[in-house]
Amino acid sequence: MLYIQKVHEKWSIFSQMEKARKKIASAIDGIKNLVVNIDFDVDEKISSENCCLTNIVRHGFPEDPRCLAYDPVQKLLAVGSGHGCIRLLGKASVDYHLKHNIDEPVTHVQFLVNEGGFITALRDDSLHLWNYRQKKPGIVHSLKLSKEHITCTHLPFQSKWLYVGTDRGNVYFVCLATFELSTYVINWNKAIDLSCRTHPGGVRQLALCPTDQSRLLIVFDKGPICIWNLQARESERFATDQPPVRCANWQYDGKQFICGHANGSLTVWSLKKSDEPVQKTVPHGANCRAITHLIWQHNNENEPIVAFAGGMPNDDGVLPALTVLRAKSSATVLEMDHPIIAICPLNSSPFSNIPQHPAAIGVLLKNDLIVVDLTTPGYPCFESPYPMDIHESPVTYVAYFSDCPVDLTAALILVGRNQRRQGARVSDKPFPITGGMERECATGHQELLLTGHEDGSLKFWHASSENLHAMYKLKTGRHFEKIDDTSVVSYAVTDVRLCLDSRLLLVSSACGQVTLFRFVKTESSQEISVVTLAQLCSSFTIGNNNGDENHHVNSNSSSTRGELKRQVEAVLSNDSRSTITTECSEEVENLTPIKVRGGALRRPAGYQPELLCQIPWGEGHVPEKITAMALNSAYGVVAIGTYAGVALVDIVTYTLIYSWSNTELYGRESITAMALNSAYGVVAIGTYAGVALVDIVTYTLIYSWSNTELYGRESVNFSLPSQNSDASPLEPPQTPTASEPAHGKPFNRRSLMSRVSSKVKETVHTSSSSAELVSLDKTSEGGQQEKPNESYLSIDKAQINIARRKSMPSRAHLTLKLNMEARDGGASKEATTPRLLTPQSAMVVFSDERMSMSSPPSALIENEEGYIEKPDDAQQRTQSVRKIVRKLTNKINLRRIKSFHNHDPKSPSTAEPEGYQEGDFILKDPPQQASRSPSLSSLDRIGLPECVTSLTFINCCSKKGNSKSEPCLWLGMSTGACVAFNLILPADRIVNSVVVAPSGSVIRLQDQVLFIGFLNRQFCVIEAGAEQYKDPNKDSGPTSANLEANLQNKVVTKNSLSPTFTNGQESSVSYEEFSQIAILVSEKEARILSLPGYHSLFHYKPEIPFVKAKTTHVRGYPTLMCLNAAGSIVILSLPSLRLLFQSQLFRSSVDIGDPICQKTDLSENGLGVYMATPSEIQKFTTCSELSSQVAECSGELFVPCDMPEPPKTSFFKGVSTLFGNQKDSIDLDAIFNENPSTTATAGMKSVARIIPSASTASPNMDHAHSKGISAGQAATMAIQNLHERGDRLNAVVDATENLRNNAMNLQSRSSKLVEKYEKKKWYQL
Questions:
Q1: What are the strands of the beta sheet with 645-650, ordered from one edge?
Q2: What is the pTM of this model?
Q3: 524, 529, 603, 771 from 600: Cα distances, Å
Q4: What is the pLDDT of residues 1229-1253, one digit of tens each?
Q5: Where in the cell is it found (predicted)?
Q6: DSSP label of 1309
Q7: Is 865 exposed, middle or buried (0-12, 13-18, 19+ CB in 10 A)?
């Protein structure tokens, strides 16, 4: 009798498998009819001519600074940096970024004072002459030395020759007119004394005498100094027994010069006495560091001022400093936070032969640029108008809003004006660098930029047009208690969500904490509410959910918590693993290294913390990473996603609404393993319930096994311990020992042997004999076994989740091989024992000939009337295989994956599909990731990482066939799934809580979901509604009418600029099928779907995967702006997804996990920003109209102005020159342009060569000047010429009048003289 019962059970299983096989075959035959498309044409007004990629402006501190220069007439400052970049700085908003064609660092910069040009020297020994008279500065000439390396350059004021020192100790001269080398060369062996037996080293510094242009001071690297007479071609040598000289500077009268030495000493030398210094001093004592930079200036009272960098003691902990020495031995030391790169005096006059007191000194540091005020006691720093402190703490996140409300900007400026740098004294005088003409605002938008930093600070910047000013700074980690070990906890900002209308701010940190900030105009005191999200921590083990005593909900709590508890208990009764901990319990506090400061603390006006969503993590674990966030002020809900799941938090009542694990989001178990082999024509799939083999040639099911049937054994009976027992329900069950007999069932492998190869047989026998097994079979309360088919089709979900929590701590790639390992089990409150199949146990090995599944499956919609795309040829067979795998998996697990949202079993959102019968299935894609292994003999591995990557709130029609719009939350997964949840928002949140219900639809894309957006029926971009800002201390709460209005979507696109239907096709499309449009973007595709019909409208598959996407507007037309993995910007039209534009933005490839993705943000109006370097932010636009407006409204670098009057020549100097037979000045042009010999000319061509450039056709700088004059400059010059002409005419009129007066006087005198002599007699003469 027992044998007949077993045969009957076996036959029952076989009949069900046969029925499933027929269902699969019929489903494959009829799958073509499931595809439903809506055919219509869209008239899009945008074209590719409207798109471009233009860099607007770059803000921040230049990366890797190298040199500094100043134009005292134009009042411009130049900073040379690494990667061939130059920054020209003037007044506020005059900030230009220039770049060479190569990435070599800029080592030297020299201004052509008041001539609109400058010269740069790069590390590759090339010299470049720039012209910045035009709006877009460019290179006029280029020259490269081929045999020697450039070590220093010097350009005297109003000189036509550039002095170049090299590493071999030679000095060359470059003509600025032709940019060619002169044959005049100062060789090192002629400059040094014959007594010097060694090479003096390279030329460290060159300086021309202020009063005698024939004397050139040369400082060599190894210490010798000399003054070379250019006219006499001989040198005046000085003593070499001093420490090596590092820098030197002339006195204004040209009679003395000062040197800074390697031991920190200063020496003053006189031209009349070359054997020893006139004066020697050690400002900071013996054994000091070298003096690297030196300035020697005098004021009008002839009081010397010496400023130098370096010379500090060699003791540890001594900071870099700038020392200022004045008369009477007074010294002031200004300590710096970073090493000093260069210093430059900001003189008021370009002439170096007159005493002048510099108003300030520009100090270029490694990570900052400061200007020191020398006219104020104490030497304070000027407040810089440039945003040089962006990288004060390393930037970790960037958010950009190109259309910010004006009132928000004004409020941030108001609360941030009292924030000043701690301990820093700022000069009250205006900033001395005032060159250039500021730019006009081209966009007309109020732009807001947010930068999150590693120290937890969040900075708000006003970024309108080309300006960037700091408005407000928020320290997001201040509300936590101080921790001694700061290496364990990091408050670095990882994500930011800002609601511009309500001014709510949501910030996530690297330690897995999410804080909600509310903007308050006045100071206030309040406590911070804490919601603990233990379910979002993958390393936190939740206690047993069975029994009311284990719920972390107080029975005496308020009605809101009571309602929440009722909802949670209802969900738990449907086998959910979720628990709720809305307060910090002792268990969670012990697992959280950071604590929130308790009590009501007084906080300044601005953003104040209101709610903290805390995710616990303990020692030995890393903090949970926040993968996605969403905030909606109108709904009053915050969504947070991690690698463990997603949670919804009510920001009105500060309570947890609900949380889900990743596999619970769309109500099914994940496929744990899968393998495919084209030679055998077989695919194997493994789940937590069992394994199945599918024939991909005939598209039929070969066989399927439960976990216990794989080994042909009886399952081990297991029951829960009693409540009085000390055993824990989460402890693993006891496996049978070796002495206990294992009663095995006879297992019929005939169907298996007839289908699979002998290789699989050997693997099965080998694995079965060597592996340990823990197999749990479901038992009833009486201890009797149920039927096998019911035992594997009806499994308690709570146990699966408990076991899964232990079985899947890491989701690595699985090798498909039969290798059965021991598993820990779990138990439920019903004492059921499900059969479990671990990810390590569901593996199959095929032969050496394998097929790579490189082609991902087509996008699918999982619904009652879902669809897939039919393969066109044999190459797409792998896609069909995955579809069959999906069906089989759901067939095995169908009865045990009922949604935990089943509050009402008859609810349409959770009920089974209409017309469902035994063996039917829901269309789903398994999570997948094809192996990228280049080996052809390796198995195709499929990874199972799954997490929420995109969260979007919207009011839409998420239920299929229902055109009623409801508040929804759309989730995008890393596996390509898109899930929609409906939010039921009660009118009174204090009495009732928010209820979340699934929409019943899952949309499948290829790979990770990046962005989810929406359009209305008129093809206008829509966003979820938002609540308007209200002061919590003054404004009253919103009314029901306001709440209803806030729930409505906000239309971003103007109706006049939106696309339209062609030929009046709008009437032919029904609202039941086409009410809204969903924009779904993943790594490998972008898809447009109609809602609520879920029909595919348009599809775009890029050649290179996307890494970032967002909807924007170009000239007001809706577009989709994407960033792909190659670093290019891709513009697609909406809704047709037509490729409009593609251009390179980054020079290197980009991945989704790269930090640059967090530091790049796309915004409205085709604008975007990204961190070009760790200290610089680059703004760009993809709109051609905006690009032309920016070019027209750009400012000017060169402003025509008069040259200051030269100093008057002394009378005694003129007399001495006249009677001493001396020349007032020598003609350097005649010296350097003397007739060279053929040999010398050939030698110069071998030393340097001219580099062709775009401006090579220009014969000289003057020609470039004449061609590089803009309209504004031409108008200014014309007005100036008119003024000069008027002045000259006035001078002529005055001179004519004077001549007339003189003539009249002469006439009157002559008349009087004639009259006088006429009256005299001849004898009176």
A1: 626-632, 637-642, 645-650, 655-661
A2: 0.73
A3: 9, 11, 9, 60
A4: 888 877 666 566 666 777 888 887 6
A5: Cell membrane; Cytoplasm
A6: H
A7: middle
